[in-house]
Amino acid sequence: MAPLSSSILYLSALFPLAFGHSMVADIWANSVHYYGFNPNYNLTSYPSDTPAWYTTNVGGNPLYPVDAKMPQIICAKGGSNANISVPVTPGTDVRLRWWQENVAWPESHHGPVINYLAACNGPCSKVDMRTLKFVKISERGFVRQTDQPEGYWATDELIADNGSWNVRIPAGLAAGEYVLRHELIALHIAFTGTGAYSASGAEFYPQCVSLKVGGSGTKKITGGVDARTFYSGAEPSLRLNIHETYDHSDFVIPGPKLWAGAIAKKVRSFTA
Ligand SMILES: *[C@@H]1O[C@H](CO)[C@@H](O)[C@H](O)[C@H]1NC(C)=O
Ligand SMILES: *[C@@H]1O[C@H](CO)[C@@H](O)[C@H](O)[C@H]1NC(C)=O
Ligand SMILES: *[C@@H]1O[C@H](CO)[C@@H](O)[C@H](O)[C@H]1NC(C)=O
Ligand SMILES: [Cu+2]
């Protein structure tokens, strides 16, 4: 039997595993590394050196279709402005890594990876998130039928790339501050049967990051929408049973259409 002290150490080492899902732990922009925001620490003050928006989402829990019209869908539960916006050059990638104290994004949580951008029209540290008008700049959903009964999804590509996703910031984007809303959607329990959807269903994992776009681009975001209009929660693509059939090549990525101004690197699965 192990001494008590090592049992306690063992338990405390395992404790983060109770926080199931991982989070955006690392961000690279213009090749500079920044840490994400970790809601699992009981912070007395916000850190000033992360572009990740703060959340109160201890445990990294999902949002559900019932949250789709609520403020928390915008920048996660308890989302509030990051203090800094980090420099990034249009046409380059911002890289985000989902990780958390040895916990990777769970393989069971198959689904799309979607990225949105909204202009802050001033410092993102001060913007009211309810005024943000987002366009979808990239999306990826079902990739192919191979590898698993549920098929291979964007989240599986993320896992294969060290838990990371590269988000191309549209070339020619006008200089200024922007909120990147990076989102994973997990579909493993999306199927809720017939009738009204319940608190279960597709799982939404958004994370906002504040960016300061440089350069001399002229493309301004037009046609953006409030994040609370992205999803009804009742879309077939948020209610499908990914375990039931093998081929999901007709999967339609939810949310608005891609912004015409985005030249996305990783786009479209087999959308009609
Ligand atoms: C965080 O710390 C405060 C002050 O000690 C305490 O009142 C609060 O319950 C703690 N919250 C969590 C989530 O641990
Ligand atoms: C970060 O921003 C919050 C909210 O605006 C503010 O209360 C806090 O003082 C800031 N923290 C630092 C370290 O600048
Ligand atoms: C994954 O990313 C982490 C964090 O940057 C890094 O330490 C690690 O070496 C990477 N692993 C691989 C296989 O690239
Ligand atoms: Cu889960």
Describe the SSE topology.
Blueprint lengths: L3 H11 L8 E7 L2 E4 L36 H4 L10 E3 L4 E8 L2 E2 L8 E7 L14 E7 L1 E3 L7 E2 H7 L3 E5 L7 E11 L16 E11 L59
Parallel strand pairs: 3-12
Antiparallel strand pairs: 1-2, 1-4, 4-5, 4-10, 6-7, 6-11, 8-9, 11-12
The protein binds 2-acetamido-2-deoxy-beta-D-glucopyranose (3 copies) and copper (II) ion (CU).
Features:
272 residues, mainly beta, Coagulation Factor XIII, Chain A, domain 1, five-stranded antiparallel sheet, five-stranded mixed sheet, globular, disordered N terminus, disordered C terminus, binds 2-acetamido-2-deoxy-beta-D-glucopyranose
Into how many domains do the coordinates divide? 1
> On the 0-100 scale, what is the average pLDDT?
87
Stated plainly, the CATH topology is called Coagulation Factor XIII, Chain A, domain 1
Order of helices and strands: HEEHEEEEEEEHEEE
- Write down the CATH class: Mainly Beta
At CATH level 2, the architecture is Distorted Sandwich
Distance between the termini: 60 Å
Percent in strands: 25-35%
Number of DSSP helical runs: 3
Protein structure class: mainly beta
Q: Helix content range of the residues, please?
A: under 10%
For the biggest sheet, the summary is:
5 strands, antiparallel
Globular, elongated, flat, extended or rod-shaped: what is the shape? globular
Cofactor: Cu(2+)
Pfam families: AA9
Protein name: Lytic polysaccharide monooxygenase
Keywords: Disulfide bond, Monooxygenase, Oxidoreductase, Secreted, Signal
Structural notes for this entry:
It is found in: Secreted. Residues 1-20 form the signal peptide. The chain has 272 residues and is mainly beta. The protein has one domain: Distorted Sandwich (Coagulation Factor XIII, Chain A, domain 1), CATH 2.70.50.70. The protein has three helices and twelve strands; from the N terminus they run αββαβββββββαβββ. The chain has helices at residues 4-14, 72-75, 154-160; strands at 23-29, 32-35, 86-88, 93-100, 103-104, 113-119, 134-140, 142-144, 152-153, 164-168, 176-186, 203-213. The strands form three sheets. Strands 1, 2, 4, 5 and 10 form a five-stranded antiparallel β-sheet that branches. A hairpin with a 2-residue loop joins strand 4 and strand 5. Residues 1-18 and 264-272 have low confidence and may be disordered. The protein binds 2-acetamido-2-deoxy-beta-D-glucopyranose (3 copies) and copper (II) ion (CU). The site of one 2-acetamido-2-deoxy-beta-D-glucopyranose has 2 residues, from loops.
